[in-house]
Write a structure and sequence with these properties.
By secondary structure, the protein is mainly α. The protein folds into two domains: about 1-115, RNA polymerase sigma factor, region 2, helix turn helix motif (Rna Polymerase Sigma Factor, Chain: A, Orthogonal Bundle); about 120-193, Orthogonal Bundle (Arc Repressor Mutant, subunit A). About 70% of the residues lie in helices and about 0% in strands. It has helices at about 10-25, 30-50, 55-70, 80-100, 110, 120-125, 130-140, 145-155, 160-165, 170-190. Pfam families: Sigma70_r2, Sigma70_r4_2.
Length: about 190
């Protein structure tokens, strides 16, 4: 009897990546495989932000409906599947908070980002372990304010609005700093591959 791959195993990650690619090519059976592999993690993200089981279930449903509609946007060369889906789930849950479609029990939107997560650290979740050192080395080559704000946004879960407010700059300025920093980060990472 063959052993079932654990969720964090390279085999499981590759199976999820292959299912995402198949889904983007229109294979509807791949959605069931993706759902089975990710529903617990993504529900946890939604529940942590929304603080209500029904709300988290509704947000999770939105995630998979939108995934079906937008699967072609996933680029396996740019992000691991679980990182992309986790970001997608977080954004859907925060969108529900912002639009006011949430029943009582949810946390205020400004508190959604800093809620602790018992799962892996954000940097470990967003990138594969073998690239973590390279990402941090490339981050260290960036100048401030891009370096500090990219770390706060992607590793600490801060929103661009929160960062802009704490830096006392317009939101557009913060977005520009992060966008330019991300472009430099990408160039550094591509040079190291």
């Amino acid at each position: 009897m063959a052993a079932t791959p654990t969720p964090a195993s390279p085999e499981a990650r590759e199976a999820l990546r292959a299912a995402m690619v198949r889904l983007s090519e229109g294979d509807s059976a791949a959605l069931e495989q993706i759902y089975t592999a990710t529903r617990v993690k993504l529900f946890g993200i939604c529940f942590r932000i929304l603080g209500d089981q029904k709300e988290a279930e509704d947000a999770l449903q939105d995630v998979y409906v939108n995934l079906w509609q937008r699967a072609g946007r996933y680029d396996p060369d740019r992000a691991s599947p679980i990182s992309w889906l986790a970001t997608f789930a977080r954004n859907r849950a925060i969108d529900r908070l912002r639009t006011g479609k949430v029943r009582g029990g949810a946390v205020p939107v400004e508190e959604a980002a800093p809620l602790p997560d018992a799962g892996p650290l954000a940097d470990q979740m967003m990138i594969d372990g073998e690239r973590a050192a390279r990402v941090h080395a490339c981050l260290d080559t960036l100048e401030n304010p891009a370096r500090t704000n990219i770390r706060a946004a992607f590793f600490d879960g801060k929103t661009y609005a929160q960062l802009a407010e704490s830096a006392d700059v317009p939101l557009g300025t913060m977005k520009s700093w992060i966008r330019r920093g991300m472009m430099k980060l990408r160039t550094c990472l591509e040079a190291g591959e």
